[in-house]
């Protein structure tokens, strides 16, 4: 089906496995029980972007951002305690700017799925690209921190605060790798949706069940026409016989 401006429209008809008693909404004859007509036009951009499950992944990104913010406060306590632990991520500020960016990208991903907005999809794509870069930097910083404190200060492993610092760094490294995978995945589908999308739409035409509709039975064949010629001849013969008897 072609539309003005060279834009094409694809029609998808969703049918149930058993089509008995099921009619298209546009063809339902009963106007009392017929639900409102649903013709939702879904843009190809959202159809591609929703494959990434942005709502679920966005919620995980928000949780990762909150974890970064919380561990950043604990890292500051380690520095103020004057321990020998070298907190590279605290000096660089990665948990703060990284966690903030993860919160923003996750919120935009959730909003894009809820509101089906192309602008939000593009915003989610941009912030997730930045989040992927930040997560890569965080992975490098956390790896360096674990190497420094594991090699040069291994004799301090018995201190509780030192062990806590290494545990925080290891936990942040795991969630940062998870954030990197999520950001790359969402960015991939967002790029496919916004940069490589064809100029066509998808129209969903759902089928509804018409409970009052009855399957028309097979029409009865009309009875055969009877020939009355035989009865007419018998009556004529009977009348002639009566006349002869009278004579």
UniProtKB/TrEMBL annotation:
Gene Ontology BP annotations: cell surface receptor signaling pathway
Membrane topology, record value: Multi-pass membrane protein
Pfam family, one: CD20
InterPro entries to which the protein is assigned, alphabetical: CD20-like, MS4A
Keywords: Membrane, Transmembrane, Transmembrane helix
Transmembrane segments: 59-79, 91-112, 132-155, 167-189
Coarse class of the protein's main subcellular location: membrane
Family: Belongs to the MS4A family.
Protein's recorded name: Membrane-spanning 4-domains subfamily A member 15-like
Organism whose genome encodes this protein: Alligator sinensis (Chinese alligator)
């Amino acid at each position: 089906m072609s539309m003005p401006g060279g834009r094409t429209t694809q029609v998808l008809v969703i049918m149930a496995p058993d089509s008995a008693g099921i009619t298209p909404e546009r063809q339902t004859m009963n106007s009392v029980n017929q639900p409102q007509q649903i013709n939702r036009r879904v843009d190809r951009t959202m159809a591609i972007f929703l494959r990434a499950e942005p709502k679920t992944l966005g919620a995980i990104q928000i949780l990762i951002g909150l974890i970064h913010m919380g561990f950043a406060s604990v890292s500051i306590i380690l520095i103020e305690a004057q321990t020998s632990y070298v907190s590279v991520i605290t000096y660089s500020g990665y948990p703060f700017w990284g966690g903030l960016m993860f919160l923003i990208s996750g919120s935009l991903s959730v909003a894009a799925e809820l509101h089906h907005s192309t602008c939000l999809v593009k915003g989610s794509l941009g912030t997730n690209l930045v989040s992927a870069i930040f997560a890569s930097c965080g992975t490098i910083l956390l790896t360096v921190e674990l190497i420094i404190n594991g090699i040069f200060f291994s004799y301090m492993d018995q201190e509780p605060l030192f062990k806590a610092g290494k545990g925080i760094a290891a936990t942040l490294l795991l969630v940062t790798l998870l954030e990197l995978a999520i950001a790359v995945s969402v960015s991939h589908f967002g790029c496919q949706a916004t940069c490589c999308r064809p100029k066509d739409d998808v129209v969903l035409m759902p089928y509804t069940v018409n409970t009052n509709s009855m399957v028309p039975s097979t029409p009865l064949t009309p009875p055969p026409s009877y020939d009355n010629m035989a009865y007419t001849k018998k009556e004529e013969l009977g009348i002639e016989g009566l006349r002869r008897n009278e004579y």
